[in-house]
Amino acid sequence: MSKQIAINILKQHSQRATIRRIAVLEFLMEQAKAYSLTEMERLLSINIDRATIYRILQIFETEGLVIKMIDLNGTCIYMFNNQNHNDSKKHPHLRCKKCDKIVCLPCLPNEYMDKLDDFEINQIYFLMEGTCKECLSN
Predict the structure, then answer these.
(1) Which class for 80: exposed (0-12), middle (13-18), buried (19 or more C-beta within 10 A)?
(2) pLDDT per residue over 51-79, tens digit each?
(3) Could you tell me how many helices (H) and strands (E) the chain has, helices first?
(4) Single pTM value for the model
(5) Contact (CB, 8 A) for 34 and 95
(6) Considering only CA atoms, which of 93, 37, 32 is closest in space to residue 61?
(7) Neighbour tally for 96: CB within 10 Å
(8) pLDDT higher at 87 or 135
(9) Which of 15, 32, 108, 120 shows the smallest number of beta carbons within 10 Å?
């Protein structure tokens, strides 16, 4: 089922539904986590070289299918851009240090964004890390 959804999403974005693109998109759609390029290379169900994964992620980021974040180690991580990200409002994310689950936090207040009006903002990487309730209770 998720394979057909991935194909439909690619078609909606006028992207060719190649085996590799479907595999990367399907993998990210099934996760509540963000993954680095290295992790995806290791975990994908089909064998795809690192450069191909990187090119696919660049296309997906341009199309708005994935969100690119920078973790506290300076590593780029990618997650599927689900309904929480369909609007263009900027909001921070919180990642659990134990289970790696990513949670969207509320949008930044207008006063904050108004301060940025004098700039042309291309990217906002705002990722906080902590420990989620489930991991704290375990």
Answers:
(1) buried
(2) 999 999 999 999 989 988 888 888 899 99
(3) 6, 6
(4) 0.78
(5) yes
(6) 37
(7) 19
(8) 135
(9) 120
